[in-house]
Structure formats: C-alpha cells, structure tokens
Amino acid sequence: MKIERLLTKIKGVVLKGEPLSNHTSIGIGGPADYFIIPEDVEDVRRVIAFCKEAGIEVLFLGQGSNVLISDEGFRGVVLKFVDGRNLQGICFLDQFRVEVQAGVPLKRLINLSQEKGLSGLEFAIGIPGSLGGAIWTNAGANSHAIGSLVEQVTVIQEDGEIKRLCNGDMFFSYRYSNFQEKSWFIWKAVLRLEPSTPAEIAKRIRVFWEKRKKQPFSCQSAGCIFKNPPGDYAGRLIEQAGCKGMVIGGAKVSESHANFIINIGGAKARDVLQLMEIIKEKVKEKFGVELEPEIAIYL
Ligand SMILES: Cc1cc2nc3c(=O)[nH]c(=O)nc-3n(C[C@H](O)[C@H](O)[C@H](O)COP(=O)(O)OP(=O)(O)OC[C@H]3O[C@@H](n4cnc5c(N)ncnc54)[C@H](O)[C@@H]3O)c2cc1C
Fold first, then answer.
1. What mean pLDDT, rounded, does the chain reach?
2. Which atom of ligand 1 is nearest to the CA of 187?
3. Which residue's C-alpha comes closest to atom 51 of ligand 1?
4. What is the position in ligand 1's atom list of the atom closest to the CA of 65?
5. Does ligand 1 come within 6 angstroms of the Cβ of 139?
6. Is the CB of 7 within 6 Å of ligand 1?
7. What is the per-residue pLDDT across 37-91, written as a single tens digit (0 to 9) for each?
C-alpha cells in the first residue's frame, strides 16, 4: 500500500510539510514529511503498522516540551498525541486509581485530580508536557517522579498490536524509563494516587510552585538541557564554568537558570547543539564531569 492510501484512511488530522517548530516549546524544528494527529486508537495502529511494514520512520510527539528536532525536519511520519474529541481523556476508576490517555497535558490531570481529592501529582506543577512524554522521560522534580505513580501502561507495539504492561514490565530511574529502549506508542496509563482533600493538595501545589520560580517559564525552551550528575546540579556546574548568558545565533544560556537554553529569536537546532557542545567542554575542563543531555534529540 502506498502512504497516500494510508492517509485517506486516517480519521484524524493529516498535514504535509508541517513545520515542527509549531509543535515544540523551544520553537525549533523543520518540516515533517507527514504530520498526523490521530483521532482514535485505530488511527495509531494503522500508522504504526504501515510504517513498520514500509520501513518509514515514525516520531512520537506529545507537547514537544523536551525535544530538539533538526532544522531539516523529519523524514517520515510525526504522530502527535493530544486530547482528541473521540478520546476519553481521564477516567477515575476508584478512590485511588485514575486511567489517563497519554496525550492529556499534565496540568489538566493535576487540576482534575485536585478537584477529586487525589494527591501525588503536585510535584509536576509547571512541567508543561503530556502524560505520555512524562512517562517516556520519567519526568520529575524535587525528588518525585511520575514513574512511582504508574501502575499500568497500555502501548501500541510496532506491529500495531495493543499490549498492557504491569509493574514488573516497566523500569523507571532518574529521567529514564525502559520505554526509551522501545518503539512503542504509549496510549494510556493507570496511575495510583492517594486520597486527600482539594485544600491540602492546593497547599502542596503552592509549595512546589514556589520552588520552580527560578525557571524561565516565559521564554521558549525545552526545559533542562542536561541531566543532573550524581550528587550535583547541572545548572550549578554550567554557571560556575562561566557559561551563563552565552549566546550562539538565536540560542542563549538562560540568565535565570543556567541549565535552560532559551530561544531569543530565530534559534536553530544547530545553535543549540553548538552551545551544548561548548557547555559540555567547559564543564568537563573545570570539573571533570561529563554532562549527559536530558532532552531527546532528533537530527
Ligand atoms: C519550562 C519547562 C520546564 C520543565 N520542567 C521540567 C521538570 O521540572 N521536570 C522534568 O522532568 N521535565 C521538565 N520539562 C521537560 C518536559 O516538560 C517533560 O519532560 C515532559 O514530561 C515532556 O512531555 P511532552 O509531552 O512535552 O513530551 P515530548 O517533548 O513531546 O516528547 C519527549 C519524548 O517522549 C516521547 N513521547 C512523547 N509522547 C509519547 C507517547 N505517547 N508514546 C511514546 N513516546 C512518547 C517522544 O518521542 C520524545 O522522545 C520542562 C520543560 C519546560 C519547557
């Protein structure tokens, strides 16, 4: 089957040559050959199985808040998961558990859980991603991470088959999940939360929010660029290596938090990559520490 025939079967949105800079929080990324927002699970299964068979690359995207995508764009299909109208986004199963579509933004999930009096997600306030992206990266803050709440994940495998994974099938550590080793599309997850009250949860949200104030939220960025090395903070090392405020093209090391690279206007992926290289060299030279990227890079 030709890709054109596949595209006629998709119920969701299909775009050709869509600039990915419109779908990344740092505002960087060239055009995708094909850009699809699925409307239901059948759309996802069709795209994934077809691309596997035809040898076409697929890139999964949530809110695009943790990725750096090439200025040349993506040769293949980008499958972006957002809360669709035919998708049952959030379903509270009992007084502990909630089933959530992977495209649901964390912010919406936190708000609804608070209304229901379910606690556990407060640490994620201010993390601008979808649940799927958060699970893939094991997003976290202040010693908490999403992986510890995940009880079950439903994925769509490369052959289009649906598989349900339970605790023993999944592994999470600092900014790592074993989903990073697979080409599986995260479709939905069951999270286990703790009963509380909306007022208590609001209090905890305020505490976590206060701690995030130094992050440059009003700028275009992809969040923290490097992982924290064991026992230290990448931001501290980058600042002390003299990289704060450094600029290449349209990319700048944030003045308020040195582990953020911000787009100050027209930044290219190559500007960010060059800055990352310089930062790595300077930190290695001064502290002997090898920084590892936290963002997912697609070149
Ligand atoms: C201002 C700012 C602050 C941030 N603060 C934090 C923080 O405190 N802690 C933290 O951990 N992160 C932080 N981030 C990074 C980011 O928001 C999180 O990692 C978030 O969870 C990523 O979700 P996303 O939907 O944007 O994923 P994307 O950026 O779209 O994707 C990230 C990775 O997940 C994969 N992916 C996405 N959806 C799926 C899916 N359905 N199935 C399979 N794979 C998928 C993608 O292929 C990609 O490799 C911050 C980012 C910004 C811009």
1. 95
2. 41
3. 223
4. 26
5. yes
6. no
7. 999 999 999 999 999 999 999 999 999 999 999 999 999 999 999 876 555 699 9
Tokens 């502990």 correspond to 96
> Which atom from ligand 1 is nearest to the alpha carbon of 140?
11
In terms of pTM, does the model score above 0.70?
Answer: yes
The reply to whether ligand 1 has any atom less than 6 angstroms from the CB of 259 is: no
Long-range Cβ contacts of 82-90 (<8 Å, 24+ apart): 82/37, 82/130, 83/108, 84/12, 84/37, 84/38, 84/39, 84/40, 85/39, 86/11, 86/39, 86/40, 87/39, 87/40
Ligand 1 contact, 133 CB (< 6 A): yes
Going along the chain from its start, the domains and CATH numbers come out as: 3-80 (3.30.43.10), 90-211 (3.30.465.10), 220-298 (3.90.78.10)
Six token digits for residue 124 = 């994620």
Residue 269: predicted pLDDT: 98
**Which residue type occupies 202?**
A
